[in-house]
Amino acid sequence: MGFFNSHFGVICADFYGKPIASGGLEFEGSIRDRYWQRFIEPFLEDITYRALAEARKLALDRNQDVVPVLEETAGLLISTARKAFARMADIDRRPRGKGHPESVTLYDTDRERQGVEAFINLHLANERRMVTPKRSLERYYRENQLLFWVLGFVVAIGAWIFAKG
Prior knowledge:
The structure is a single chain. The protein is mainly α. The chain has two domains: 38-132; 136-165. It has helices at residues 30-36, 41-61, 66-96, 110-130, 136-143, 145-164, and strands at residues 10-13, 19-22. It has a two-stranded antiparallel ribbon with strand order 1-2. β1 (10-13) and β2 (19-22) form a beta hairpin. The chain is elongated, with a radius of gyration of 26 Å.
């Protein structure tokens, strides 16, 4: 029959600490609505705020380029959110199938997933705007290190030839 409709039920807390309890219920109607209507999103949004802020702080503390660090962090957050929604869809399917999850269709999480991804991308864009660009020479050097290396090599060879001759 499933965990949700056992006499023990389920008790958990939402992001704000408010208890969510169910017992002796089918996994339909309000209990299922509660599962899909902003149950996981506040957790993912909180992780997004904290992870992007920490990534920015660590990059600055270590004198690294902040934007690539933020972009990689956002990518990891999106990947985590996708995995969370895929797992939720699998969990949703089990009680609905009453012991036969393959007998019911997998819930389409596109709407929830897209909402969280938009949230992550919005906050990535906000973090990018807060990054102070490095001076143009530093940025040019970082983007063209090979050119500076070759130029240094040519100058060294020229100095050596000049000293010999």
